[in-house]
Write a structure and sequence with these properties.
By secondary structure, this protein is an alpha/beta fold. It has six helices and ten strands. It has a six-stranded mixed sheet, with helices on one face.
């Protein structure tokens, strides 16, 4: 695949200009590939229906599969969910920031495509300081689905992303090689007790059986 995306390599100690450029692209409805605390993700403004639609198109994702969001800090949870259960509170206390995605009941005013028709929304405060700094610079949550075609391996480098999606994304943020070897753990916190959907980078079992 021909790479037509703008590429920005992060420089240690001075990411401000790179993050500002990412923010410009996202504000304009664009889609970026960026490093998260697990693998590289596809970032778009989750309040922009067209941008969300582009993420689905880029991944070749079917409409009934929801897309998780990465948020800067826990204070943003109320923007996306209508209920925070006791289990959710405990798990956020214990594992955020970190590679734990919590699935909440979605607020009715969010872009419907994000929920995949499930009425739920996955949220994570990423463990990577770099990713949180990017989220702080953009001033909003970002879609956090992995930067690959559905069914393909999750990418650990921007080069892998560009080989597959280079002509489809607007900008690639090169943060080096991800040291992740597993995706985030996913837990449904819409009910009590909470339910593990996918066991990944963190083991939450002990917390759930308290």
């Amino acid at each position: 695949m021909v790479n037509t995306a703008e590429i920005i390599k992060l420089k240690k100690g001075s990411p401000g200009k790179a993050f500002a450029r990412c923010a410009e692209v996202i504000k304009g409805g664009g889609v970026i590939a960026y490093p998260t605390d697990t693998f590289y993700g596809l970032g778009a403004d989750p309040r922009n229906p067209r941008a969300v639609s582009r993420v689905f198109e880029i991944k070749g994702r079917v409409a009934d599969q929801p897309i998780l969001l990465l948020i800067h800090d826990r204070s943003e949870v109320d923007e996306w969910t209508s209920e925070i259960t006791p289990s959710a509170e405990r798990l956020m206390d214990r594992f955020w920031p970190g590679p734990l995605t919590l699935v909440f009941t979605a607020r009715p005013d969010i872009v419907p495509a994000l929920t995949g028709g499930t009425g739920t929304i996955g949220l994570r405060v990423p463990g990577s300081e770099l990713t949180r700094a990017l989220l702080g610079q953009t001033g909003k949550a970002l879609t956090g689905t992995s930067a690959n075609r559905s069914g393909s391996s999750s990418p650990r480098t921007l080069d892998e992303v560009m080989r597959e999606l280079g002509e489809l994304v607007d900008l690639g943020l090169d943060g080096g090689v991800s040291d992740a070897d597993r995706p985030s753990t996913v837990v449904d916190v819409t009910t009590e007790p909470a339910r593990i959907i996918r066991m990944g980078a963190v083991d939450v079992t002990a917390e759930l059986i308290r």
